[in-house]
Amino acid sequence: MTPVNEISIKLAASKPIAAAIGERAGSASQPDSPAPAALVGKSEFKTAPRLQTSLTAAVERRALNYLAARLPEWVNSDHLTLLGLVAMIAAGVCYGAARWWPPAMLIVNLWLVVNWFGDSLDGTLARLRDRQRPRYGFYVDHIVDALGILALLCGLALSGYMSGLVALAFLVAYFLLSIDIYLATYTIGAFRMAYCKLGPTELRILLAIGNVAAFLHPRAHLFGDHLLFDVSTLIAIAALAGITITSIVRNTVTLYRTEMINDK
What we know:
Layout: E1 10-12, H1 17-23, H2 36-42, E2 45-47, E3 50-51, H3 57-69, H4 77-97, H5 104-128, H6 134-159, H7 164-187, E4 191-192, H8 200-216, E5 219-220, E6 226-227, H9 228-258
Parallel strand pairs: 3-4
Antiparallel strand pairs: 1-2, 5-6
């Protein structure tokens, strides 16, 4: 997380659930008020196209289809989603352990591979076996992504290889971009999975390279003596901020033009 996910992204096509709930807020205490599950069941979903233009997208798609076709029948998408989350938590634990045992930084890379396997393959497997659950998949996948990045950054903040404030700033920047992506998926109907040719897989690769570099040379001598991860993460924060602002402006203009009110 992605930072980004591989589960089929769905967009509510009928009246939003929140609106339906709001209309009945005044009669919430009445016995005939529908349960949340009933409201979910009444809404219709349609597919929102995924805009995946990352550098490794084509190769990754072929690899995922190959792996999904060869997984044993007892493995399902829930198992893979859980595996991806456990891998991110384990990566965070390894980052924390690196404070006392630096080689743990390299073990993080193994968990990043496991996370890629679980997080990227769950949606592919569901589509291949025609076992898709649009609402459940959308909700769970994004919650798992948020928990995973939180665990990863908590570990980095404890590792001694990154300052706590820098980790917090990156978490905020990541969540702001995620919020923009999810809102655009719902309101515009397109799920953008990559920016500047970089998607979740490319970010994992960059992080793995950064882990090796930080293990070998923890500090960077750029405008002084600083932690290597602090310098690289501040650059990443600036990039995320620029991407988020650009996306917000683009989405706002698109929605404004789509729903422009002509005053008479």
